[in-house]
Amino acid sequence: MLRFMTPGSAAIQPGHPGAHSSWMEHLDESDYFVEAWRCDLASGVFQLGQRTALLIGVSSRSCGIVDLVRAYDGRDRATVLNILEQATASPSSFCFTTVVRPPASKAAQLFCVGRSLLDAATGENTLQGVFAIPRERPALDA
């Protein structure tokens, strides 16, 4: 599915681990740089991989949602925020793709495969998943 996703595309499956596994299988590490990420919903802080942090232009591997989404193409922001909002409402598997436009380098497509883990009993609520960047960066509209 991910190979055919265009920027701005997204999908969410309520509490469906099979969807998450299926999307992850498409992220062949010979085709993508894949890095894990995690967000503690209590604090709203995202923990990113080094390559992803560099791509989106944040100085630290920890950032907030505004820092993360600010790097995304403006046309994709509403879709991404909608997916993340739905994922915080109930346990979900989700994926999306966007174009990242870092200030100092050329645009790149970024894929996200994630899931929400919401545990009312312990209060530990997280979003977690991977960001994937194509190893061969196709030319994207500036």
Describe the structure.
This protein is an alpha+beta fold and 142 residues long. It has one domain: PAS domain (Beta-Lactamase, 2-Layer Sandwich), CATH 3.30.450.20. The protein contains 4 helices and 7 strands; from the N terminus they run E-H-E-E-H-E-H-H-E-E-E. The protein has helices at residues 17-25, 50-56, 65-70, 74-89; strands at 10-14, 32-40, 45-47, 62-63, 92-100, 108-119, 124-134. It has a 7-stranded antiparallel β-sheet with strand order 1-5-6-7-2-3-4, sandwiched between helices. A hairpin with a 7-residue loop joins strand 5 and strand 6 (108-119). The protein is globular and about 45 Å long. It starts with 9 loop residues before the first strand and ends in an 8-residue tail after the last strand. The model has no long low-confidence stretch (mean pLDDT 84).
- How many β-strand runs? 7
Count of separate structural domains: 1
Distance, first to last CA: 25 Å
Low-confidence stretches: none
**Rg over CA atoms:** 14 Å
Q: Specify the biggest β-sheet.
A: 7 strands, antiparallel
The CATH topology name reads Beta-Lactamase
Short description:
The protein has a single domain (2-134), classed as PAS domain (Beta-Lactamase, 2-Layer Sandwich), CATH 3.30.450.
Please describe the structure with a list of short key phrases separated by commas or semicolons.
7-stranded antiparallel β-sheet, Beta-Lactamase, 142 residues
Itemize the secondary structure elements and their pairings:
Elements: E1 10-14, H1 17-25, E2 32-40, E3 45-47, H2 50-56, E4 62-63, H3 65-70, H4 74-89, E5 92-100, E6 108-119, E7 124-134
Antiparallel strand pairs: 1-5, 2-3, 2-7, 3-4, 5-6, 6-7
